[in-house]
Specification:
Layout lengths: L8 H4 L11 H13 L6 E3 L9 E6 L2 E23 L2 E18 L5 E7 L1 H13 L5
Antiparallel strand pairs: 1-2, 2-3, 3-4, 4-5
Length: 136
């Protein structure tokens, strides 16, 4: 189900809690909402739809990829960038890493480990900041 975009900075500033198999509807709602905003959004964390759970989704071309309970286990090649956010007005500076490796659960709750680089890595880092209650 497509959910409204949360702009409440109090809620967005709270740390998210782990996702369990009972939270599959949150994952579905996040994917549906991201798809509905694909013209103006490339990634989304669950708190953007008002649910403080540790799941993000990113848009990679036609593919929407959810990462459940993600954890960055390595990062390299730092750089600074200006980023915008669907929940906040304007752009802000952020430090990102060109290459990251992430452990996460897929939609079937199977453990995965994957390397990302470039823009995909940037999207993941932005959305993972949201999971920690960090607003750029």
């Amino acid at each position: 189900m497509i959910k409204p975009i949360n702009k409440d900075t109090t809620l967005l500033s709270q740390k998210s809690t782990p996702v369990t198999p009972q939270d599959t509807q949150v994952v579905t709602d996040l994917i549906d909402t991201l798809k509905s905003h694909k013209t103006d959004c490339v990634g989304m964390a669950a708190n953007i739809i008002g649910i403080n759970k540790c799941v993000i989704a990113l848009q990679l071309g036609d593919l929407v990829m959810p990462l459940i309970n993600p954890n960055i286990i390595s990062k390299s090649e730092p750089y600074n960038v200006e980023e915008g956010c669907l929940s906040l007005t304007g752009e802000r500076s952020a430090k990102r890493f060109m290459k990251i490796t992430v452990r996460y659960l897929d939609e079937s709750f199977k453990p995965r480990k994957q390397a990302f680089e470039g823009f995909a890595a940037q999207i993941i880092q932005h959305e993972m900041d949201h999971l920690e209650g960090i607003l750029i």
